[in-house]
Amino acid sequence: MNLTKTNLHPSLFLPPTTPLLKPQIKNQTTANATARPPSQLPLDEEDDVSLLRLASRVDPSPKPIKKLAFMFLTTSPLPFAPLWELFFARAPKNLYNIYVHADPSVNYTTKGLGFGFSGVFKGRVIPSKPTRRHTPTLIAAARRLLAHALLHDQSNSMFALLSPSCIPLHSFSYTYRTFIKSRRSFIEILKDEPGAYERWAARGEEAMLPEVEYEEFRIGSSFGC
After folding, report:
1. Measuring CA to CA, which residue among 72, 68, 71 is closest to residue 92?
2. Rounded Cα distance, 39 and 151, in Å
3. Over the stretch 10-40, which tens digit does the pLDDT of each residue have?
4. What is the model's pTM?
């Protein structure tokens, strides 16, 4: 199926989505309640709890049209942004959304780091917090991206978590068909990889215990769909 506007029935096209970070959700008490915009939540230890609580109330029922949510988790400008621009150039705008979690401690407009987020990434940065490799901050950032995607547009049906080094290998049409038709999640899980023990014990030989025994530890990419 070629996912272009000329081949899709007009009834499948929805009106423009609400502005990023101003979602409409249903809760248990009011059918058409307006969710508090995540951008107005205080950036402290409690805001993620509030954000995830709101996201957990999103209506999971199927929508007339399914969208892909591309979630970029980065601590630097996106070096392959030109490739992504080409990837999205011919994509129907009603079939995808873009979200960026950018470490706020980094100055993305500093000379040598590019000029911030422009093109398809302009205005797509969600309220973010500092992140560091090999720490739970990456898990929190991924959950933050997922929550914002759920709240911003309930038509988001599949969620791709991407790093700055990720590049598109196929066209948008191929990617859309593959993910939307799939009933599986795509997560890399590798067993018996070299250096597995060193990574398991990176924060101390007992830091992962008792929750994760070494025999149950697996290595894989943090990014998937």
Report:
1. 68
2. 12
3. 322 233 344 454 433 333 333 333 333 344 4
4. 0.70
**Domains of the chain by residue range:** 64-186, 192-225
Q: Which of 65, 30, 54 is nearest to 146 (CA)?
A: 54
Q: Which of 32, 29, 22, 31 is nearest to 153 (CA)?
A: 22
Planar angle of CA 147, 148, 151, nearest 5 degrees: 85
Q: Is 158 exposed, middle or buried (0-12, 13-18, 19+ CB in 10 A)?
A: buried
Give the span between the Cα atoms of 179 and 137, in whole angstroms: 27
CA end-to-end span of the chain, whole Å?
Answer: 21
Q: Provide the residue type at 39 as one letter.
A: S
Residues 70-123 pLDDT 10s: 999 998 889 999 999 999 999 999 999 999 999 988 877 654 444 568 899 999
